Amino acid sequence: MNTLSIGWTQADAHRSLTRFRRLLAVNLALQSLVALLCILAPSWGAWITGIEPSLARPLLPVWGGLVLLVSALQVLAWLDPVRQRFQVAIALAGRVLMALIYLCLGWQFWRFAVFDAGFALALGLLFHRALIAEIQTRP
Questions:
Q1: DSSP string for residues in 15-47
Q2: Are 24 and 74 in contact (CB under 8 A)?
Q3: Percentage with pLDDT > 90 across the chain
Q4: Per-residue pLDDT tens digits for 14-29
């Protein structure tokens, strides 16, 4: 490989990682915002899901706290996705699993299922491209 093609592949890898990191940042920000709203205003979370507010009040703040914890654990994967690729893979599998759980819980949770499944698919594709591009930069 000559210097020009190595430089091009490194630039391509950098662009791919930047796209993945941007989408992950959007996902974590939206996820954290919804979680904070469920902690601070459980009636809003009950309205979004269509659950009876009296049933949702004790559960939604706990769910919001867990989602915040999971989001915080993914910050390292956002900072360096290539070195933290195992953590990224676990997070992607977790998103798919949560989408299936939301679907099993009933139609009220379809918004959460679509959110997690959509981001799992998009992040998975971008991460795959980023890893392939990163591998191609190594002689």
A1: HHHHHHHHHHHHHHHHHHHHHHHHHH-HHHHHH
A2: yes
A3: 63
A4: 899 999 999 999 999 9
pTM score of the predicted model: 0.88
Confidence band (pLDDT; 50, 70, 90) for 59? Answer: confident
> To which H or E segment does residue 50 belong?
none
> Is 109:56 a contact under the CB 8 Å cutoff?
no
Distance (Å) of CA 48 to CA 32, 75, 94, 106, 109: 16, 27, 22, 14, 9
How many other C-beta atoms lie within 10 A of the C-beta of residue 1?
Answer: 10
41 phi/psi in degrees, rounded to 5: -140, 75
